[in-house]
Design brief:
- There is one protein chain.
- The chain is built from 3 helices and 4 strands.
- With 85 residues, it is of the alpha+beta class.
- The two termini are 22 Å apart.
């Protein structure tokens, strides 16, 4: 069964279905200084991360294969989901 994050779920199904991967709920459970890997069928591999100071980040692999992190707020404000390379 395919699992979709908040952005992909909204994009594909609108408000009709909740996301399989609720980034915000999962972020609440992550201890500071660690991360949780997830696989979204739309975005690919993601890492929900919490810094030592408690900042929430989303990690993804860019087109060059490099792992990049962005603040969850920046991800939230992006028009489209992160697409795999």
């Amino acid at each position: 069964m395919a699992d979709f994050c908040n952005k992909c779920s909204d994009e594909m199904f609108g408000d009709n279905l909740p996301p399989d991967i609720d980034v915000y709920e999962l972020a609440k459970t992550i201890p500071k200084g660690s991360y949780m890997p997830v696989i979204c069928e739309g975005c690919g591999m993601l890492a929900i991360s919490k810094t030592d100071t408690g900042e929430l980040l989303l990690g993804y692999e860019d087109a060059s294969g490099e792992i990049k992190f962005m603040p969850i707020k920046e991800w939230e404000d992006k028009k489209n989901h992160i697409k795999p390379s």
